[in-house]
Specification:
alpha/beta; about 40% helix; globular; binds beta-D-ribofuranose; binds calcium ion
């Protein structure tokens, strides 16, 4: 499967790089400000593709969201984005500077291209705004973002949508096929220290384990529990292994103006409207043990 990974690494983004390097054919990595500044996101992406021996371009994208702000999640991922983990020195450089052009060109040149979006949706919204046919040319967008239940930044808003609600609104209404792995789904896939100990002893597995442990360390101080929902890997695995996930078509809207609800994804779930045509395939369930095993066997 050929993908572009649009990302703001980020510890769970970094885990997704590891999985993507073995499960997909990566056309390119596009970076976006989100968990960390664009500069750090791109720096991390370059270090990751080098460490994982990935042969694909890294294109630096939007440094601010569509409202001109640059929120971050340094309290979860660290100021550097990788929880202080230092990857080996390398000589990779970012390719080009026009992320929109890269996305549009790839959509023309690559058949059945999926975008795996695991950060704020700014880059993808900019591509849609520049060329409305982009959404129809790609196979679809598998995004980590939103929720059909609670949020994480606020009680109702999930980080990636909250960090650029206008972009999410553009993407969800673009007509593209969209698979949404929201918090209601990703909280069904959690790493624990005991599961990590059982992963194989390979270079890629050890990288994955280190990123997960750094997340456990932070979450332990914040929540008292050494476990982490594997948010971003879900968006990748829902695409590569769809039989392990249940998605249903639903109407989803993004709240842009609510005082308490900006960034919320409103998923139509009234039984009487269940048959309405949806704009999004919403992830509801995954087979937890099978997906955890899949990760172990991939590494
Ligand atoms: C999302 O927010 C980020 O902090 C994670 O990398 C993930 O993409 C989870 O809400
Ligand atoms: Ca992310």
């Amino acid at each position: 499967m050929r993908i572009i990974l649009d990302t703001d690494p980020g510890l769970d983004d970094a885990m997704t790089f590891v999985l993507a390097s073995v499960l997909t054919d990566i056309v390119g990595i596009t970076t976006v400000a989100g968990n960390v500044s664009l500069e750090n996101a791109t720096k991390n992406a370059l270090a990751l593709v080098s460490s994982l021996d990935m042969d694909c371009p890294v294109v630096s994208g939007a440094h601010i969201n569509l409202s001109g702000d640059s929120p971050n999640a340094a309290h979860i991922h660290g100021v550097d984005g990788l929880g202080g983990i230092r990857l080996p020195a390398h000589k990779r450089l970012a390719s080009g500077s026009d992320v929109t052009e890269f996305l549009l060109r790839s959509s023309r040149e690559v058949n059945h291209l999926w975008i795996v979006s695991i950060g704020p949706l700014t880059n993808i919204a900019l591509a849609i705004e520049r060329d409305k046919d982009f959404a129809n040319r790609i196979a679809g967008i598998s995004m980590m973002g939103g929720s059909s239940t609670h949020g994480n930044v606020t009680s109702v808003a999930e980080f990636n949508v909250w960090a650029d609600p206008e972009a999410a609104d553009i993407v969800l209404n673009s007509g593209a096929t969209i698979k949404m792995s929201g918090l209601n789904l990703t909280h069904q896939l959690k790493s624990s220290d005991s599961w990590l100990r059982g992963l194989p002893d390979t270079k890629k597995s050890n990288m994955f384990r280190n990123f997960a442990r750094a997340l456990h360390d932070t979450l332990e101080t914040l929540t008292g529990q050494r476990e982490a929902a594997l948010h971003d890997p879900c968006a990748l695995l829902a695409l590569t292994h769809p039989s392990l996930f249940t998605f249903q078509s639903r109407r989803v809207d993004v709240e842009l103006s609510g005082k308490h609800t900006r960034g919320m994804t409103i998923v139509e779930s009234r039984p009487s409207r269940a048959q309405d045509t949806g704009n999004v395939l919403v992830g509801y369930e995954l087979e937890t043990n099978a997906v955890l095993q899949l990760i172990g066997s991939s590494l």
